[in-house]
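Deliverable D4.2, example record:
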Amino acid sequence: MSRLSPGTRSVRKSQRYAGVLSVFSVRRGQGAFYRRRVTVSAPKWTPRRERTPVSLAASAAVRPVLEAPRRPARVLAVFPAGAYLEVRTEREPSVLAVVTGGGTRLPNAVLLAVPLPSLSVGEEAVVGDGGIELGPLSLRVRRWWDPAAPPGPVDPVRLAHAAALLRPDGTQGLAGNGAVDLLADSCAGGWLLGALSAAEQLVGLGPGLTPSGDDVLAGLLVTLRHLGRGAGAERALWLADWLAATVTYDARTRTTPISATLLHCAAQGAACPEVLGVLRGLAGRTPLAPALARLRRLGHTSGADLAQGVAIGVDAVLAMAAPASRDGTGHDARHGARGAA
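Output generated by the structure prediction step:
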């Protein structure tokens, strides 16, 4: 440290490209002035990453989060035909499925027409303002599809004949589970308290990204929404509202992020094409057997579990749409006391 003449105060500054070298004087008490050298580094400039623009199609169920302001996201899981992105938002759906042509078109999916780039779990992304920035791609939505397209009017007599094909084939993940049996009996019998109690037990029940209990509930919710409306069974829609509120209330804390999002989608009647195809088959619009076979092939047990939920929903719709079972208020006369619980 070099000493300056007393009473002299000087400030000298020089600037270079990589930083600022300042030479200045400081005073310590009543003594002489001292000179110090301080180097302040200039901020580093990071070039903006160039991304390849790609058009995509997206489910209308994810429109709220895609058209919201940009938010950070991260890769939650990667699989051969796609990846899951978790968006940092309180809004649902909070998980997006980015899939290629070979992936299942989930109700929360965006569909790529190009191969998925190499991704790793935890990798950062950005979602919002009508698109997704993911790896080297800048994805922009150009087309939307409806994941909750209704099957149309439903004839209860035809539905009753078709329901025989929905009998569980033993491949479902919760075969023989008491909560599933309670759910089926309560929904068909109009016992609201029993149905809600069973649904509470099933949320998050089972292994994997989409536990079997959640798949059963998703199949049930979508069926009550669409076939209940098509058959004119208002009681089925009423039951769907109660079940939807129960299973989505704290789904994020009770099951996986992707499964919580799918439950929120199902609560609005949104599902993958395989489930909607079965509902159209039950309504007599398309052949049922091939559609049911396609559904049951999904995943390890997901397809069979979804089909079991659809079967429970069909039995409930038939019970609630039967004219002989209704009283003057539109409630199930056989189970009026239990239904009001």
